[in-house]
Amino acid sequence: MNNNLIRCGWCEKDDLYRIYHDYEWGKPVYDDKIIFEFLVLESFQAGLSWHTILKKRENFRKALDGFDFHKITKYDDKKVEELMNNSGIIRNRMKILATINNAQKFIEVQNEFGSFSKYIWSFVGGKPIINHPKTLEEVPATTEVSDNLSKDLKKKGFKFLGSTVMYTHMQATGMVCDHLVDCYQKNSMNNFP
């Protein structure tokens, strides 16, 4: 990894953050399984730092059956207690229960729209919104799109996916590109259809 590259300032904490920034953040994701993984991780992140979640990501992957939403829908009280006793993840009963609920709702949306990806990307017209922030302060916490998306998800029965969480989801999955204008990743983002 080249640590001499100019990156968005938020990722310069350590290599874990830099790798995430360089290889995932802001890259368009259309695979339902990966979209679901990010929804889960971001719902657990509410009130915590993303760095904390990234450090626990592989523990979450093991604990949640590889983020398999079909398996997660079948989690019972025994599995919830097992997760509550797993020190490798965030042990928050409400968020664990929300993950099970959201897996069920995720499948309902897939059935309605053909894929969750088709549904969620419709909020940005099927292609990334490319912003041109010069500083981290210019990057919003929410937008009208994330507000609308969050409201629609809530209406569909999803939990722990407020507007701020959904904006971070949009950034993570490339629905919006908020790489700073001087970040080396910005040039690669300008080639989207």
UniProtKB/TrEMBL annotation:
Its keywords, alphabetically, are: DNA damage, DNA repair, Hydrolase, Metal-binding, Zinc
**MF (Gene Ontology):** DNA-3-methyladenine glycosylase activity; metal ion binding
Q: Which Gene3D superfamilies match?
A: Hypothetical protein, domain 2 (1.10.340.30)
UniProt superkingdom: Bacteria
- What name has this protein been given in UniProt? DNA-3-methyladenine glycosylase I
Quote the EC number: 3.2.2.20
- Species of provenance: Chryseobacterium lacus
Broad enzyme group: hydrolase
The protein's matches in Pfam families, at most eight in alphabetical order, are given as: Adenine_glyco (PF03352)
**Any one of the GO BP annotations:** base-excision repair
The record's InterPro entries line, in alphabetical order, gives: Adenine_glyco, DNA-3mA_glycosylase, DNA_glycosylase, Tag
Catalytic activity, reaction form: Hydrolysis of alkylated DNA, releasing 3-methyladenine
Instruction: List, alphabetically, the SUPFAM superfamilies matched.
Output: DNA-glycosylase
Q: Per its database record, what is this protein's job?
A: Hydrolysis of the deoxyribose N-glycosidic bond to excise 3-methyladenine from the damaged DNA polymer formed by alkylation lesions.
UniProt binding sites for Zn(2+): C8, H21, H179, C183
